[in-house]
Amino acid sequence: MFDLDAIDRRILRIIQKYGRITNADLSARVNLSSSACHRRVQRLEDEGVIRGFAALLDRRKLRRPTTVFVEISLSGQANELLESFESAIRSIPDVLECHLMAGTADYLLKLVVEDTEDFARIHRTHLARLPGVAQMHSSFALRTVVETTALPL
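RE: above sequence
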């Protein structure tokens, strides 16, 4: 665990919201000199608190408006089966997230697709070929109510 003080938290909140903010603007917002602010950001990067920076793309403009959640139950829990499944899932470019779950399903996937036909293609060419799958249930999101990449600080 990394200890964050109030200034670190302010820096992280601002960077999460305004990833392209200049160091000069960031330092003014957190009331630090430019060099002190830069050192803090560098330390947060070096410690792995800041893992990187990314552009957030508009999935609708890129013709991927539909979010699909897929619950997958495997036929067993052997370590080799889990590793085989996870290796295969990493090779599917359409999968945005894959989580090993506790509960009724073993894995939960998140995909964004163009439409039901696009999902059918992904299902046919990738998901149906995953190793060890006993059951698969897909749910289409009707509307996104909350969507953020910002962690609460």
